[in-house]
Amino acid sequence: MNDTFEIHDLHVSVEDKPILKGVNLTIRKGEVHALMGPNGSGKSTLANSIMGHPKYTVTAGQILLKGENILALGTDERARKGLFLAFQYPCEVPGVRTANFLRLACNARAGRDLDVMEFYDKLEAKMKVLDMDEKYLKRYLNEGFSGGEKKRNEILQMMMLEPEFAVMDETDSGLDIDALKVVSHGVNQLRGPGLGILIITHYERILRYINPDFIHILVDGKIIKSGGPELAGHLEEHGYDWIVKDQVPA
Predict the structure, then answer these.
(1) Which of 26, 57, 92, 225 could join 217 in a cystine, given CB atoms 3.0 to 4.6 angstroms apart?
(2) Is the pTM of this model over 0.85?
């Protein structure tokens, strides 16, 4: 069985402006990859393109999920096939209670109506891992939630949906240290042979709690360097300039 998520020579434009200029990346189940880069390098463009956001136009390349090119699929179809995106800025959905949203999403992912008691038992267990009070279930999805609460809710969704590949788009953005530790603990609980993870971040901070197997540096729409976990520490100390200069021929 093909247990890989692959991006081949991906070019993406927004309003006819090229943003991604040939991204290549392969993630296998059981691996955690981190994608880092300066502002404007195309990190969020990559995340949104993976999930099929209509604002982003793929002009060349492929996105393969277990060998299948998913570019022609809608966002909902990609999610049902096992892709998940944790948003940098999770949106509020007034009128839709969190519990109802999660149950409908899990039913869609499973392709059937799940047993109600089994669903709620699982939900309660996952919420304990994230130190979430059950009162959140009765609130409208993300409405009035703090930044940390929204991010915990994103990880709760990921834990309930059990995707095969997950993209976390700057999940650490706006989190205080306590919320970061809780969110990271939830991700580490999910880590295993059945899940491949791509963490998109500016900073090393979250990588102190979620230790990646590989780190990739995206600059001006291309991955210009890849390495192990030590690369994040070097970036924290020296910034991105040294990598850019390293790519320029003498």
Answers:
(1) 225
(2) yes
Tokens of 217: 């540096």
Please give the tally of structural domains in the chain.
1
Q: How far apart are CA 209 and CA 188, in angstroms?
A: 8
Residue written as token pair 């990190």: 43
- Angle at the Cα of 89 (from 85 to 92), degrees rounded to 5? 100
Which of 25, 85, 11 shows the shortest CA–CA distance to 51? 85
Token digits of residue 97: 């209670």
pLDDT in tens, 156-198: 999 999 999 999 998 888 888 988 998 899 999 999 999 999 9
160 in Cβ contact with 106 (< 8 Å): yes
DSSP annotation string for 10-63: EEEEETTEEEEEEEEEEEETT-EEEEE--TTSSHHHHHHHHTT-TTSEEEEEEE
For 134, the domain range is 4-247
DSSP code per residue over 151-184: HHHHHHHHHHH--SEEEEESTTTT--HHHHHHHH
CATH of the domain at 14: 3.40.50.300
Residue 247: pLDDT band (50, 70, 90) is: low
For residue 102 the two structure tokens come to 């999660």
Question: For the chain, how many helices (H) and strands (E)?
Answer: 8, 12
Angle between helices 147-161 and 177-190 (to 10 degrees): 0
Instruction: Please list the residues that pair with 17 across neighbouring strands.
Output: 14
Residue type, 28: R
